[in-house]
Amino acid sequence: MSTSHSDSEKAIHAMTPDRSASLAQLDALTSAESTSVFAGSIRAGLQAPIEAEATERIGASRYQRAEGRSTQRNLH
What is the distance between the alpha carbons of residues 46 and 44, in angstroms, rounded to a whole number? Predict the structure, then answer.
């Protein structure tokens, strides 16, 4: 199956927000000093499961309103 040039370009430019954010993060990491790269990697690695647990317990992601939500993020 062959794809035309325009289909290939569309596939390249149709990035999900997560992929786009990952590429921006990668650019920032490769241009930073090694200590800040390490610190940023550790911070991101620790923050992701914390956010996932909070979302699961609360029943809504950050900035999302949900019916029946009885808890709040950051005591607000």
Answer: 5
Q: How far apart are CA 38 and CA 42, in angstroms?
A: 6
Q: Can you give the residue ranges of every domain in the chain?
A: 32-56
CB 73 within 8 A of CB 57: no
Inter-axis angle of helices 34-58 and 17-31, nearest 10: 150
Cα 32 versus chain centre, distance:
19
pTM over the 0.70 mark:
no
How does pLDDT run across 14-70, given as a tens digit for each residue?
Answer: 555 677 877 887 777 777 676 777 788 888 899 999 889 988 888 888 778 777 777
Question: What are the structure tokens assigned to 45, written together?
Answer: 């690695």
